[in-house]
Structures are given as structure tokens and as C-alpha cells.
Structure prediction request, 982 residues.
Amino acid sequence: MFAKVHEQNRMKIDEMKELILKKAEELGLDFFPTIFEIVPANVLYTFGAYAMPTRYSHWSFGRDFFRMKTMYDYGMGKIYELVINSNPCYAFLMEDNTVTQNMLIIAHVLAHNDFFKNNCRFKETRRDMVEAMALAANKITEYEKKYGKDRVEELIDAASSIAYHIDPYGKTLPAKKKKEKVKETPYDDLWNLEIRKQVVKVEPTFKAKKIPETPEFDILRFVINHNRSLEPWQKDVLTIIRDEMFYFWPQIETKLMNEGWATYWHLHILRELELDTAQTIDYAAMHAGVVTPSPYKINPYYVGWKIFEDIRERWDNPTEEEIAKGREPGKGLEKIFEVRANETDASFIRNYLTEKLVEDLDLYIYEKTDKLPEPENPRPWYKQEKEREWWIVEEKKWEKIRDALAGSYATHGIPLISVEDANYRGQFGTGILLKHHHEGSPLHEVYCSNTLAYVSMLWNCEPVYLHTIAKDDDMEVTVSYDPQEHKVSWDVRGD
Amino acid sequence: MSNELISGVVSQQDWSLYRKGEADQERHKQKLNKVLKKNLADIIADEGIIMSDGKKVVKVPVRSLDQYKFVLDPNSRKSAGTGKGDSKKGDIIYQKGKGTQGKGKGPGAGEEAGDEYYEAEITIEELQALLFEDLGLPYLDPTKKPEFVVEKIRFDKVRKTGLMNNLDKRRTILNTIKRNALAGNPGVKPIKPEDLRFKTWSKKLVPKSNAVILAMMDVSGSMGNYEKYIARSFFFWMSRFLRTKYTNVEIVFIAHHTEAKVVTEEQFFHRGESGGTMCSSAYTLALDLVAKYYSPQDYNIYAFHFSDGDNWGYDNPKAISELKKLCEVCNAVGYGEIVSEWSGNYTTLFKLYQEELVKRIGNFNQVIIKDKSDVYGALHAFFRPSWDTDAEFVNAPPVALSVIEERPVAISINYLSKPALPVGAIEPYPTGIAEHCLREPDFDARVAKGEFRLISEFLGSFTDLPIQVYEDREGIEIKRYKTLYRR
Prediction:
């Protein structure tokens, strides 16, 4: 009987899919062929936790799976779908979804697909990542059998800790080669009186090269290339992790836009279809649930969608000033397609978040503090009780909000860390020196200390040092990790 | 858009055997168990367990395992949000801590950045297994306990026939008197055969595996709720451990101050008493009970005493001598001293016990407990496999355990005291009735402004003068007194 129900369901979804595909193509979406797989809840949550159906096994995915599944079981949150950047594009729909829900989701998925295919940042990503990950997972399983699950797990833990610090766009400068004076004739130097006056310095022919010569922002790459004592299988695992991060990186960079784009289209495609009242109410309810604004964070579905609507509106109906400058009316659709191809979240916000949008969405920046702001606190000598925290709106000026948001989407909360010197002499001996390029926010101290232990593990258990600026007093500090004692010390830098 | 290829396909395969997520979840659980083991000290004294009152499954808040990476400090980061349309600078969108009702709905699950806790559901059995494994104790499956049963002869029956040797003289005489009285012939003679009563025996199957815990606790004024809680935590695990070894485990609760009394478990842990402390009273009572009800041949006796060590000096020698006697009949005797941060190092009692008992007697041990996590250490000190009936016992030094954990201290505002005036100063208030609102300048004005709100007024029980209780915006109470001055 279950098979029959599933069969019926599937056929209905098939019909829907044909309708929606046609409509999407009509409206101009350009996407890879898509495979919609209907899966039970635990499978969808597994894929949600692993991000890809064929990824290697790791306890952290197990933890996330458990967490997500628990939230689903308790009715606290639901994943409806999962879509993968690949060609053909794989999309997974939850078995329990109703037909109308599936319609909305299929439209949503097609828009994601179009985004993956056309956004500039995705041009270099592998479209066969599903298969590639399957191969990688197999390799890792082989290594686990050969070298032991614990060793491989440890290595993956360590690699994952610094995986976010890759350098997709080449912040790492190539080492500058010293320019030699080209002698044009053998007698040039005689004419150049300057040179004759110079004192000839004898330079030692052998100089220890500083490794790395210029700060290296791709920590994993640095470890792979420079750690001579890594075994080939270990290098392989590190490379797998790094490649995965490269694959996911554009998705991290365009999350807001992508969700906004998909929301825009699931709304507009479904509006064009002829739905009866019940279906309309169903999908309107689901849409409303997805775009609920949150007072505590930016809901990408909501904000992204609203920005796209705004762009469409402004380019369809430009003001007189804009027309005078050459903008033709009615170009809204063209413009949003152009935007989806060329921008990332940071530039999207910087270029298209207007004053009006900030007002309409009532955006603000808030901070969490354990002190009530001054005017309201009549007794500043009174020490507040512990465990009290207030979240207070701090900024309402639209330019500041726009700049702050664009800035945060540019860094994604990932601190900028580079490898400065692999042979740094610190208090625990010679080790590797990292630098945190402080952009206004300090590091989480406990996490930092523990991550240094992982870095040390990847660097032959040598001491690790990190230059950063401390949280409380803004002083420059060196964080030193001693692998012998497994302890970390934070010292103010004298120099 | 290629037209030859199918642009979309719906498929539904059989996923019923797919267990990838569950497999890795198992792995996570294994790692979590390792972490649980490391933190057993904190977990076993958790209130959820000790007060669980027999519930099988207990929720223990456990942080899920972290994946460490370089992240920005979440508390220093500002976040953005979308409001309802009228937000302005200074609006409080959320308030954590006391009095959050009404100050905006809190962030939902997954919205808050930072620490992730989830409650690991762990059955008490699992926790017990972890704990005992960690303490190096054999964990016996409670369902598979071997029944050691012994036939014992007990003279607890009375019959009309029996051996003359077993004549129950008292009952016989009573029956004679009764019969004679009924016949109108008071007196003891004659004794007829039908009056005779004989003591006879029945065979009782007594499980050899019997244990009794003599739980003794000092309930004098110095033992507060916290101390009682520590004691309870210890007894909880002690009884569970002994239950794995013995079929029948009884606990007798003896509460004492200057006198000792057998009480119920409820009274043991909840009733407060006051008064001085004479530890020997508890030991004497314990010895009494052993003599009357718990013969060492039938029972494995474990005696344990909790106190804060503040014994009356002249009682010490008696305490020691009684304890020595107790050690002779018990499998093991222990003493736990619960100290709070303001008392000094070991008390005299502790030192005395150390001298007289620990060093000389094999089955006595003592520990100091300063906070919840020390309970674990206490269990460790007492239940190492060597601390047992037959094994060789190694004298262990007293275990002084961890550093005091900072307990949050409630801040209470007390506006009772008058500020001290320098000697010779003229008192600024006239005789008669004066009002103090010294800590709060311009109190009346601020009440008028609305900063403080009067919530109740009553008469003081000593002075019969009115006391007003105000509340300010955060819910902090201020009492306003009128004081009588006399010259």
C-alpha cells in the first residue's frame, strides 16, 4: 500500500514538475537538467548534515544529523529540500511534503540551479562533485582500514579546523624577484658615476630563505606543500578537505543572493500558474513561513528577495533623473538576471541596499551588552547581576548599516589568518608563526587556543604562535602553544 | 538549454536501509561518552540525578562536541536584524536573565550563536556503568546477581508441643494463670499439660548477600541545605554501588546533634535542626542498632558519617573510642567532612581521626568535600577495589580535594544600616521619628518621577513602625524604614 501511495504521489509531482519547468524556461531561467529525488526524512536530514550525499564519514556530521533530526522530531524546524551544485543537478524532496509544498520547492530549486549555473563565482566549480566526493569518501574509508579510524579522524579534525582559511582569489602575493640591473654594454658601469661611488657590499651567497616569503593566506596549502614529514595519504586527505572547501566557497559567498533569487522565483513562477484557492493558500502560507523576518538576524530568504524585488521595480520604472542618464524603463527583468550573474553578497548589499530598503525592512544593527546604556542606568555603581544581557539597537543610519552588513558578508565571520614564518623563534622553541589580521573584531579565545593545538598537530607537533589583538584591552599579544605541556599562553608583545 | 536531454526527472528509490547519519551519530555518541567520563565529577553530582527519585532516564546537559576553528568572538560582534517597522536606537529587543517575561520573544532554536548545549539523555544505569568503570569497580549486572542463600535457624514460633528444653516458661505460666482465673481459682498451680508452650524454630532462607548502610549525619545548626545535598549525593551513589554487590541493601538514617535518632530518609535530608554537635551520640546509636538488629554475621555493614567537623572538644575521645568499636563490626567505616570556604583547613576532629584511626585501623577512611565535584573524588577514595571486606587495605592519606568553585553569591540590597558618624559629631536628625533614605538621594522625588513603585507596606514586628517596600524598574526591592531615635 505504501508503494502505491508513493507511486501516486510521485506521478502528481511529475505532472507538477513538467508545468513548472515549462514556466521557468518561459520566464528566462537557464538551468542544468535536474533530478528530483524523493526521500524520507532521515535521509534528507543526513544529506543536510553532510551537505552532500556522498561525503566521507565523520562524527561531526553525526552530531549535526542528530541535532537537526531532533529539531525536526520536536517540530522546531524543518528542512524541505536540498539542492546540489552539479550537472545534472540533484535535488532532494522530503517524502512528507504535500503536493503544493513540492510545487513551491521545485520552483525554488530550479532558481537555485539557474544561480549555480550562471553566477560568476561558480564558473570554476566542479559540476561532477557528487561523483568526486564519492571517490574521495572511498579513499578515506580505505585509509581508515589501513591506518586506523582514530588516526584518520584526528587528521580530519585538524584539517577541518583550518579549512576555512583558503585563498581562492589569491590574497597571497607571489614573491617579488629582485630586479637585476641589465647592463646594456660592457662599459655602462663606467659611465654611471653613481655606481662607482657606491661601496661594494659582499653579500653572502647563501641566505636562509624566509618561509613563506610573503604571508600565505592559504594555510592548508602551505601545510601540504611545506610539511615534509606528511605521509602521502595524509597529504591526500588534506587535499580532499581543501578541494571540498573550494567547491563550497562560492556557496558561502552568495548565500543571501541565492536564497533571495530562489524565493523571488518560487513566488513569481507560481503566480503565473493557475492554482485553485486551496493550493494558493497553501503555498502562500509556506512562502510566508519561509520569509518571516527575524529581529535577531538577517533572514536571507526575506532580505534577498526584497532586494531583488526592489531592483526589478527600480529598473522597470526608473525616476526621471535616471531616465535622463540613459536608463530605459522596463528593463527590470534583464537587470535582475544581470545582477544574479555578476554579484556576490558583499557587492550585492553594497550596490543595491538602498536607504528606502533599509527603512522598509526596518534594518538595524544591535549589540549584546551586560550593561544598560548610560541614560537609563541611574546607579552606575551598582554591579549588574550575572547572567543578564540586553540586546540593544545600536545603529539606524542606513549607510552605516549597509557598510557594516557588506563588510560582514565580505568576511563571513571568518577571521583573516596568514602564515608569516615557519621558523619563528618563540618562547617554547622554534615553531610556526601565524598572524591574525585584525579587522575590528577579536578572536574567540577558547576556540583559538584549541585550534592552535590542531595546527601544531599538522606541523609536526611544533610550537605554534599567533599574533593578534586581545579582546579586553586591545593590546597586541602573542598566543603561544606548547605541544609538550599542551597549554597555551597569552603574552603581551613587547616589541 | 539543451533540448535533447531531459530537463527534469522525478525519481524515488528505496532508501529504507540508508543509515549513514545514524552510523556517524553512533560515533559521535562514543566520543561524547569519552567526554562524559572526563567530566564525571560534575555530572554525578548534578541535581537532576540525585533528586531524580527513581526516574530511569535523566537528562544531563552536555555540550555537544565542539569543532574548534578560528572564529571571531561572538560577544564582540554586532549583529543585524529586521524590526517591526518602528525600531529606533536604544530599543531593547531582547533581555536575558531575570525578568525576561514580556521583553520580546527570545531567539528561537538555532538563532543564537555561540554555545551549543543539548541534553544528553542518559539512563542512570548507563551513568552508573560509566562511573563504576571509571572507579575501577566491577559492574555487576543487577539481573544476574548470584543468590547466596543460607539456611538459618530462627526461634520465632510457639507451639503446644515440643522439647522440654525449649519450654517457654513465661507463656506457660500466663496460660496457667488465665485458665485458673477463668475457673475461679487464682494462682499458678496446677500447671496442666494444655498450658505448656514451647519455643520452636523455623528454617529461614536468609540471603547471605545482605548489606546495611548506617548513614549518619550531623544535623546541627552548621549543616545547611548545601551540605545535606552533598551528603545525599554521596549516599545515592554509595547505595547504588552496594546494590550491585548485595541483594539486599538497607539504609538506616541516623541524624544527630547532641543526641542521635533514627529518622526517615525524608527527615534525614530535609529537616533542619540546630544545636551543638556530639558525634559520639551517633556512633553509640549505630553500635546499638548493630547489636540489636544487624548482626555482623548476617549483614555486611557499612557505616558512614558526614559532618562539618565542628565537634565539642570534650566529646572527641568518646567519639574515637566508639568509632573504633564500630570499625570492628563493620566492613568499612568512613567519615566525610564537608567544609565551606570560610572554615580553615582540617578541623581538630579530622586530625584526630587521622592520627588515631586512619593510621591504625585498616577499614577506616576519611575525606574532605568542598564542593559538588568532590563527591566523585570521595567515591573514588572509598570504593577503590581495595576497600572491601576481605582484601588487603592500604592506608590512604586523607583526600583533600579540589579548589573551591566560585559559587554565585546573591546580591542583596540592604538598606538597614545607618551610616557611621565620626565620634563627637552632632547627629543630624532630630529626636523623634526620622526617615532614612540615605543610599538613595532624593528618594521622594524619584518616587514621584516613577522610578520606584510602592509594592507593599507593613508594620515592623519589633518597632511597630511602618516599613514600606518599593520596587525599581529592574525588580530590585528597597525597604524604607522609619526609625525611632532616642536621646
